[in-house]
């Protein structure tokens, strides 16, 4: 059994309200992506793994980045990894670049107020959330000796 | 007792004045979010935990991301976690994406000066603060052996 | 044999769909760049290394940042490095700054709707992907004593 | 003596010139903020601590985020912390969001050239610096046993 | 001999081509800044240090952030630091904020096509590079006992 690196991708949206605002927003994870050797991902996450988007096949040495968890709880995933002997060894995070594309972004200044109002209505809830959209990546690793016990 | 991962989310606003400016601004934390197994969060933070937004229920295995601390002092939270045997094992940070949405953002160029002045007055304090808005995430972890003692 | 630092650059595009959207997007790595002492890079990655852009020459002490892997699997690269005694010691990530340049960015507001429509068609798929474009850098290190065994 | 977490905030501006440009710019730190238990901050940094903005009072258990160093040398602060038994355990960084607010940002397109020229003159030096403005946060921690010796 | 913290600033530009594009771009470091106690920086980097921008003077306790390396190879700097007993203990990264200032940014929309074309020609190569501009900071540390041997 070789040592195995485990790269768990966390894609999350984090949003919180402004100072003094009643509605505190909490962490919202969209999806916990799991990347690594396919057989190892299955060994660790078992039934909690959604494999519907993974092409499958190709034996024990196949690596995949098309698996994700059925639940959206990051700490639960960490517990599962720790129970299997993995340690978190790295993390990094980055915000998205600007807001999601809207139709005709540069033309809004030329829209009528009615069109603009309609667009604002559709986007108003999204915009504050988009401002805080980001992804975070965690890397987990298991020492070889732990695996051979 | 299993090993437990503890994910404490820190949502903060950091702002400082320009070089040579009299009014130095300091760290302003909006809210310290706490995520993880609900029973563990309560064991660690006890009375300092605000549970008003947590749905509760579902037994010892329930994970939550709807708890936050009653105080806004990051170092105090770190001390509490260290006293309970947790170590900080990861941190990452990201700025927000652009500024908070203002009504009719692309239409301001067509406003009268009076409207514009009014809007600048409302936003002038916010903008410099928004530029530095960011969140930081810290992950804390406790080795299983410490818990079983 | 001296101790060797190993800097593996990961350039990736990360994109995911919105909440409740059917098409979940996964991690897409464009290219895994490998930087460090050229002889060491070859010792570690062997045939999986693309050397076509590396100028070569200049002996054992030459450092290069013009090598990349033939595959795009980050976890496979981590496994290879771990098998050779390297440990991941640092990681950091950052998003790209804004979107890719489009021709005449400031002039789009003056385009006809037809031109604008054409441009939106060409860019619509790209924009959501560009929002999530980022790079991540990992640093791997091998202790000198491991190498001399 | 309990174990103490120490959160030193570094607020810096980093700027460098373009490739081949004569004037290389260097790191410019605006202010090194120090956060943590007030008595501990004083024990560690002593006379190098500026306490003029700290409200004071409230005994040994008071935490503060209103202290900063009299000098702007990050490495000197690290040496001081290391001499007192602290270790750096985490760091994270994030850029500011966009540029600092200018008066009537959306109205500049409608200004006369004279007004615009004046504004460019005022802002030209600032803009390149603002592009690189960022903050970095470091967390330092001291194990309890070191303190009790 | 006291323990010494070593803060090496890495300022780099990272750029890569789009998926399926022939011209793969590689890491381009503009300049490796070195910050810390001046005597220690010289002890570690010796002749590879460019001291032309350092004011000098003031004895063994002087800290500086005005030194940089004559070469632009990050891994070579890491090897040098490791040979002298330093360990990398932290890293963080952040992108630049938006693109570099162009003259009259808000007025471009009012330029003639000829002026605009000229400007696009000058900027087209720069823009994709600017999108990926970022800096990365690494902190190196040497334990006191290693130094006294």
What Rg of chain A is obtained from the alpha carbons, in whole angstroms?
20 Å
Strands of the largest sheet of chain A, in order across it?
3-4-2-1-6-5
Q: How many strand segments of chain A?
A: 6
| pLDDT averaged over residues of chain A | 69
Q: What oligomeric arrangement do these chains adopt? A: homopentamer
Summarize the helix and strand pattern of chain A as letters. Answer: EEHEEHEHEH
Strand percent estimate of chain A: 25-35%
Structural class of chain A: alpha+beta
Please, how many helices of chain A? 4
Low-confidence stretches of chain A: 15-23, 100-125
- Whole-number total of structural domains of chain A: 1
What general outline of chain A do the C-alpha atoms trace?
globular
Level of helix content of chain A?
25-40%
Largest sheet of chain A: 6 strands, antiparallel
Distance between the termini of chain A: 10 Å
Biggest interface found = C-E, 45 and 45 residues
């Amino acid at each position: 059994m070789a040592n195995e690196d485990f790269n768990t991708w966390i894609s999350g949206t984090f949003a919180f309200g402004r100072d003094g605002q009643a509605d505190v927003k909490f962490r919202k994870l969209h999806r916990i992506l799991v990347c690594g050797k396919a057989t190892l991902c299955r060994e660790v996450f078992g039934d909690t793994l959604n494999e519907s988007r993974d092409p499958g096949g190709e034996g024990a040495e196949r690596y995949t980045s098309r698996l994700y968890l059925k639940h959206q709880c990051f700490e639960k995933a960490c517990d599962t990894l720790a129970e299997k002997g993995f340690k978190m060894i790295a993390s990094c995070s980055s915000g998205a670049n600007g807001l999601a594309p809207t139709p005709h972004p540069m033309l809004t200044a030329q829209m009528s107020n009615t069109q603009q109002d309609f667009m604002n209505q559709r986007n108003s809830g999204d915009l504050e959330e988009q401002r805080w959209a980001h992804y975070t990546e965690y890397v987990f690793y298991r020492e070889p000796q732990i695996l051979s016990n």
